[in-house]
Design brief:
The complex is a heterodimer of chains A (356) and B (255). By secondary structure, chain A is an all-alpha fold. Chain A has 16 helices and 4 strands. A two-stranded antiparallel sheet of chain A has the order 1-2. Chain A has a two-stranded antiparallel ribbon with strand order 3-4. In chain A, strand 1 and strand 2 (131-132) form a beta hairpin. Chain B has 3 helices and 14 strands. The radius of gyration of chain B is 23 Å and the shape is globular. Classes of the chains: A mainly alpha (356), B alpha+beta (255). Chain A binds chain B through residues 44-47, 119, 121, 220, 223-226, 231-233, 235-239, 241, 244, 269, 310, 312-319, 321-322, and chain B through 49-51, 65-66, 129-130, 133-134, 136-137, 139, 141, 143-146, 156-158, 165-170, 227-229, 231-232.
């Protein structure tokens, strides 16, 4: 009797063990680590990108994130995706002053381009820095009533019913759970792979391209303390991000209708401050500024040249505000624009890995 | 007999192991440098920034928006005469409350040091254009047009000018470039002499920057004459260097 009982127990354990084993096999799929392709100049000049320790990049996670980024299932009426306002051909912004959500309602901020996000070491995203971390940032547009206007329960249901997603989530994260946490993790992984570092100017720095006299003169204006003085906020030949990723009041308005960083911190000294955007890919990112008020690069340059407005929080680096700006000549403006356009990265724009 | 021999071997190994542990800990000490800031003795932190609340020696009311500076090359002279030069450097970012406390990473042998110095900025030898990825990422570079390398200090703010208007100032310290001799920059970094220091397992040196001294001694700074575009102003850089000599002071050394 005891021997029979023992046999039954062993058999039971055996089957139980087999059952667990099958489940483990399904859930224990190990995603393949993703190898981030970091441009040579970034390797030489910058510290390593900021990657999440609890959301490591994997081939499966990035692929899932890309699929989600372009999927209209993430909107309330299945008409828009992240890519609707962050188009690859526009350096992951769009060409509208204010993007329209699924209900045709516009916001009050220009859609930000998306690239080199893993080098934003403050980890504060959006024009006003309100989003801490890429994963958290991706939560917001989904439920925003003037953007994708959906809710996470509906999205989870739609993705669970999809013939492909359950397997993709399982392979990316080892779980059959589909929720906001894993969706945003996947999207953040894809966004971290959006690296732009191969412009004509990058090639010039690497010794593989030459610049025209106008482009070189434009670079000199950019780097000159007494001319453009752009380098204090927008990087340099030694900082190929072309942004300091910090927040500044660049003299757009004498009074504010949008408080920017001040809305987030509650500090009046932060009113009117917005993130310095990278100057890469300006060819594709018009209109410009947080509210898309300037439709051309000429207008942007004119602003810094003679359009500065004084306000209490204007950055001290806007040092010529008393004279309206840095007072560039027509030729200097042309040259500065010519230099800025050397930061155009066609390889990034046309990269099939970033296209749907 | 065999058991006794084994016990002796074990004891020797244990004792030897203890001795090595002690040696390692003695060879691995670092020094912590803490940077405090004041305006004529009153503590200043980033909470005090952006308000017109400071008055400089000339009498100009001013605010601080940005203050960050570079510390490098800690040199320790041991009582035996041996000199240790640490290649560590640190960006003190008062605006973002970062780098205010910094522990050296290179090993220092504990003991009595007759002289310890810390450098403000980079020496010419270390001021290598684009060589420091963390400083590049922090956007602390100096354009090649102005000699390249790095800022030693960025100190931005606003003051009430002679027309009673708010005006910006950018008190940026870099290696000075003489426009008549652009290939031979004048090293405007300088050393702060901390004096004798006993280095133990947890030595901390508290240093204070009196920000007001940048405008005071020996040159009374007139912001109405020198407020912006100072990086390329050779004479201003030399004056800043002179004023810097009295900016730092030793507050305390603790063990």
């Amino acid at each position: 009797m005891n021997a029979k009982f023992l046999l039954v127990c062993i058999t039971g354990f055996f089957f139980l063990s087999c059952s667990n084993s099958d489940s483990d096999t399904e859930e224990a799929y190990t995603p393949v680590p993703y190898s981030l392709q970091i441009p040579l100049l970034f390797q030489d000049k910058l510290i390593a990108p900021l990657l999440s320790t609890n959301n490591p990049l994997t081939e499966e996670g990035v692929a899932l994130g890309k699929k989600l980024f372009f999927d209209t299932k993430l909107s309330g009426n299945n008409t828009q995706a992240c890519a609707s306002c962050h188009k690859p051909q526009n350096s992951f912004t769009d060409n509208r002053r204010f993007s329209e959500g699924i209900d045709g309602v516009s916001g009050s901020r220009n859609s930000m381009p998306l690239f080199n996000l893993a080098w934003n070491f403050s980890d504060r995203f959006a024009w006003d820095g309100k989003e801490l971390g890429l994963e958290k940032q991706a939560l917001e547009p989904i439920k925003n009533p003037i953007e994708l206007h959906s809710n996470w329960a509906d999205i989870a249901n739609k993705l669970k019913q999809d013939p492909e997603y359950p397997t993709l989530f399982l392979r990316a994260f080892g779980t059959s759970i589909i929720d906001s946490s894993y969706v945003t993790k996947a999207i953040a992984q894809f966004e971290r792979t959006l690296i732009s570092g191969n412009s004509k100017f990058d090639q010039y720095l690497l010794g593989n391209a030459t610049l025209s006299l106008g482009e070189l003169n434009g670079f000199t204006i950019f780097m000159s303390e007494t001319k453009g003085d752009c380098f204090h906020c927008h990087g340099s030949d030694n900082n190929p991000l072309w942004t300091d990723n910090d927040f500044h009041n660049n003299g757009l308005d004498a009074t504010f209708t949008d408080l920017g960083l001040g809305t987030v911190t509650g500090d009046p000294n932060d009113n009117g401050k917005f993130r310095s955007p990278s100057l890469r890919n300006l060819t594709f990112t018009a209109p410009y500024m947080h509210d898309g008020r300037f439709t051309t690069l000429e207008e942007v340059i004119n602003h810094y040249s003679e359009g500065l407005q004084f306000s209490s929080t204007i950055d001290p680096l806007m040092k010529k505000v008393g004279q309206g700006g840095i007072q560039l000549t027509s030729q200097e403006k042309l040259d500065l624009k010519a230099f800025l356009l050397t930061l155009t990265d066609l390889e990034f724009i046309n990269n099939p890995d970033f296209r749907n | 007999m065999k058991k006794c021999f084994l016990a002796v071997i074990c004891l020797v190994l244990i004792l030897n192991s203890c001795s090595k542990d002690n040696d390692i800990s003695q060879e691995s000490v670092g020094i912590t440098l803490n940077f405090n800031h004041s305006w004529e003795g009153t503590e200043v932190t980033n909470v005090d920034f952006d308000d017109l609340k400071f008055t400089n020696e000339k009498g100009d009311l001013l605010s601080i928006k940005l203050l960050r500076y570079l510390i490098s090359e800690i040199i320790l002279t041991h009582e035996s005469g041996v000199i240790t030069v640490l290649e560590d450097y640190n960006l003190v970012d008062v605006t973002n409350n970062e780098g205010l406390s910094f522990t050296t990473t290179e090993a220092i042998i504990p003991g009595e040091y007759t002289r310890v110095t810390v450098r403000f900025g980079f020496s010419d030898a270390n001021n290598i254009d684009g060589a420091y990825p963390d400083l590049n990422t922090a956007n602390f570079n100096v354009p090649g047009l102005l000699g390249g390398g790095y800022h030693f200090m960025q100190f931005d703010g606003k003051y009430i000018n002679s027309n009673t208007l708010e005006a910006p100032f950018n008190y940026h310290v870099i290696s000075a470039i003489d426009p008549t001799n652009v290939n031979d920059p004048v090293d405007t970094s300088f050393t702060l002499n901390i004096g004798p220091v006993t280095v133990g397992g947890s030595t901390a040196i508290d240093i204070e920057m009196d920000i007001s001294e940048w405008f005071k001694n020996p040159n009374t700074w007139n912001l109405n004459e020198k407020d912006v575009n100072l990086m390329g102003d050779f004479d201003s850089q030399l004056l800043m260097n002179q004023n810097g000599a009295s900016v730092f002071s030793l507050v305390d050394i603790t063990q």
